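Forwarding the complex inputs:
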Amino acid sequence: MTATAPAAAPAPRRRSLGERLRAVALLPAIAIGLALVIGGIVIILSSPLIRGFDPALPLVAYRALAEGAFGSVNALVNTLVNATPLVLAGLAVGIGFKAGLFNIGAQGQFLLGAVGATVAAIALNDASPWVAIPVSLLAGMAGGLAWGFIPGFLKAFTGAHEVVTTIMLNFVAIHLVSGIISGPLRGASVTFARTDDFAAAGLPILIGRNGHLGLLFALVAVPLAWWVIYRSTIGFEIRTVGANPDAARYAGMHPRWITILTMSACGLLAGLAGAGEILGEVGYMPASYGTTVGFDAIAVALLGRAHPVGILFAGLLFGAMQAGAGLMQVQAGVPAQMVGLLQAVILFFLAAELVVRQVLRVRTGDGELMSELQTVSQSYGDQATR
Amino acid sequence: MDAIYGIPILGLVVQLIVYLVEAFPVLAPTIVAAATPIALGALCGFMNERSGVVNIGIEGMMLTAAFVAWWTASIAAQLVPDLRLAVFGITLPLLIGLVAAVVAAMLVSAVHAWLSISVRADQIISGTIINIFAVAITGYLNLLISQQSPPSAGSFQALRLPSAVEDIPVIGWLIDAFISVGPIGLTMLISVIVLQVLLFRSRWGLRTRAVGEHPKAAETVGIDVIRLRYRNVVLGGAFAGLAGAYLTIEFGSAFQGEMTAGRGFIALAALIFGRWTPVGALGAALLFTTSIGLERSIRFAPPEGQLGELLTAVPLQFYSALPYLITIIVLAGVVGRSLAPAAVGRPYERESKAA
Amino acid sequence: MSETGTGTSAQKQGQRAPVLEMRGITKRYPGVIANDGIDLDVRAGEIHALLGENGAGKSTLMNILYGLAVPDSGEILLDGKPVDISGPHDAISRGISMVHQHFMLVPVLSIAENILLGEEPMANPILMDRAASHRRIRELGQRFGWEVDPEQRVGSLSVGWQQRVEILKALYRNARVLVLDEPTAVLTPQETKEIFEVLRTLRAEGYAVIFISHKLYEVLEVADRITVIRRGKVVGSRIPAETDEEDLAELMVGREVQLTVDRGESHPGEPMLVAEGLRVRDDRGHEAVHDVGFAVRAGEVFGVAGVAGNGQDELVEALVGLRRPAAGTIRLAGRDVTGHSPRDLHQAGVGFVPGDRHRFGLVLAFPITDNLVLNDYYLPPYATGLRRNDEAIRAYAEQAIAEYDIRTPSATIPASNLSGGNQQKCIVAREFEGDLKLLVLDQPTRGLDVGSIEFIHRQAVARRDTGVAILLVSAELDEVLELSDRIGVMYRGRLVAVLDGPSADREQVGLLMATGGRDGGTQPQTMADEA
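Prediction (whole assembly, three chains):
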């Protein structure tokens, strides 16, 4: 291939904003559209189990979904409130991707953030909010950081692949939370295993019915993450380790420490998400906190192509779906799990983008979905980075 | 450590060992029963990874199969005559459920195969999608169906051996533990042995190993890498199907949302710990589930005295978390990952781009 | 070696119809025409050489023959009948066997398992028959006087032995056409001689042999006919008696080629790099470098010759900070830098062109700009504190691209879009700059076209003349002989000899590479000899 002209890449002229937007957003948009169609088919097929066969049920369901997400100021705020932990946890997964790491442990890190914040909140329940809130938030971040540090450290120094260790830690986190809340932190006069309500550390409501302080965290985290990843030297190191750990070593970087740093940072973000949720939205901590934020975050990160701005939009989308799911279940009888189904189908079409592109003759920009992901799969069989 | 403290601790350790040794024969059936779905999941992973395909979607496949087994058996019980076989408590509805579960898991596996092999998408993403999808669809359908309280089709029964077997000295309890599982459990044992032999002595085994290590080399001697991978991955799905079915129509007889509880991932760890061999994976699975037996034993029949106080003082959640902690320790410490099939995780491109 | 000696080849000379014909083969890849209307034919009992530089299209043609690629147009005929080769399986069943340039061996499997793969003898429908297969393999080896242990793991074999296994693999099937793609690339001169004997034996037995190479003297020595390919087209066909190296080189490259770079005399100064008592372990913990010591002076090229796998990789990694020596010292301009990090060494004036350029040299997914500042990204002007300065990086990149003639439509396209030669130029542009004291070049021209090779060699000599010390490690003996002022030979982790460059004799160096200079140079015939 060298004898004739050097492999000719079509000369890339500077593309207009519209073209760039189209290149990036077209495929996810198609994936979402197809997912809605498939979801609609599932709804129709299962409508006999709901209220009898009804081919128009998807429309009812989607209309309710949209109304629950955008239909009123409270709905909009609710969407933002749902989106916040998704964006933060999505960043927790997406930044990991940039370093070639698959952080499936956002779920456990989220829980550790929640329980860390809870411990501080209960301890400071009689203190002033000016003390209780910052300390609880920091405690939550510390808890999440620890739960990110462990798999990062193990990956760096023993080669244990983070996919399995983080999933294991997710389960350990569940039992850890259960142990702490059912035992030492159990509330005084409660009907099921949970703590007392938070008095001092509860986050103040800023707008709407439940728009709490935590909303700001996501708004700040996105541009900050963007700057760090794409404009700073640290971000360059993270991306280099994700793309080629050997070249990173030769360039004088330290892949091991980058791995640990990145996983810890991811843990911190997910922990912040958990702390925000528990202090701002829930108000107390149950022993078995049923949430799927950690897994939704993976979908958000993939949909957002591991880019902070993409993650912001993906988080808003999923937050909207979650906000509207309740109304959808009430008005259309369609279980809220439909949202999870839509997510999975969106991801499926993203993963199959090669085929989607060919089938629909779509021309998007250059490059594959996320080349860093190759490192994730290929590092599965390798030894620890040296 | 001062000698003064040494002796009591030594005493505790001895007491612990004695306790475990005594408890083991009683616990053995529990341990084997708990290890069965993990070992089957590991066999699924084995078929995948030995061929060079990463599959972290075993969990989703198991969950799907568990749901399908339960649901189709339940429907079948209402529609189909209740034919019964004496052995294993086999009924027609249960058989239908079993077959449906295996087929369902193989279909899901085919999707993973397509994404990983033909589309060459990232294999870990593909597995994750399957997991998310399985949780969503089974949860969705379970919610709708439970509203109508469908009847349960029951479950396969364990094989009751004559008590003479149990009385065989030393290993009687061992044989009993392994044989007295249900039909799926027995299938697991047979599969482990058969696959172990096939891996190193059969043509299929040799070609699979070659494809997993160096697919290009296999291609150049005329082996169809793509077809071999497809076949192995889909067949691997059958084992995940058995594992899921086991949970709802042999081990238990009902379905709960997300009931697989990470077994699919523990299965992967068992595979790695067992050096990607079926027998090794079974051994690892047994090791992991020993901790479950331990939890049960301590909860219902704790040892006497100081040791008992010590063990029961630890919150029960610790024992629940133990299998996962052991998995992490194993992954981190024990096994050299250089033993993984060399080409695992890398999509294979058929046409060579040489110049 | 007589051409007409045996009865069979004399008989074959009578019927000269070709066994294999490729007519008008054309194959396009995006952006490049790999094969353009190529005609090639081979007769039984003939060695037909396919000559061309890296990237000319030889491998594409053979991949088409072997069913690994589908031609856009043209046809293939076997015994005069057109055939459609659907894949390697089909090619093999038609009697076409191939020995690939990069070994197609599975390291964890045994020799027998590798040879039999795809053609396993069965004891019953499920289990394989080991005894029968082992017997057959031993017999096969005997044909060439090799004693083969079928159970040995291929991963533990030397390069020369792996090549033998590859040949046995090709011969195990009933082949009539045998294709060898650059079989001597990693062999010592002695091993190369042995391969030639093997080829002559096969020719005498009536095989049609296609021998692909870019090495002129080899082709002249062993071929009956030579076809030269350039840029995907056949540009000439010759008989060895009627041509010479200059003629072939000109055909191959399309212009007059300076076969050796004008090296000029070196004026070495003080020792710049001094290594003493180095011991380095490999990834598995075995000692790959035993007690190696040498010096490279400023203004000289010190070439390290040796068969791949004798410790050169580990030595190079130790010298550039990628691997910590277990013992010994490394001094740069008098300062002890043993075990220092790559960044330290780079700051101290060490440049490194890695042998595995996709692994250590470039981040393929990143744009050229980022690749060019890979070592200095954190320093001003490319960054102030934590903030990167994209404009400064871009400006530098444009300058480097112009200066090193890197052919690219833009500075921001990913490095993966560049050709191999231009990728290497990026690495050279990055590493050959700055206040250099030592340049470590590891296989710097592997796989490159002649133009790029000339460029890099010229740049290296230019740096030498400004006083830089150059350590050149290469498995291409010719490159070492051409450029080095002094030559060291690595064998089994030891530096077994250091010779004067200009007066070094090819045979002599080759012998040292193959045997370490222990005895009179007998090739190891059994695996036990290797121990």
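Chain A touches chain B through 61 residues (CB under 8 Å).
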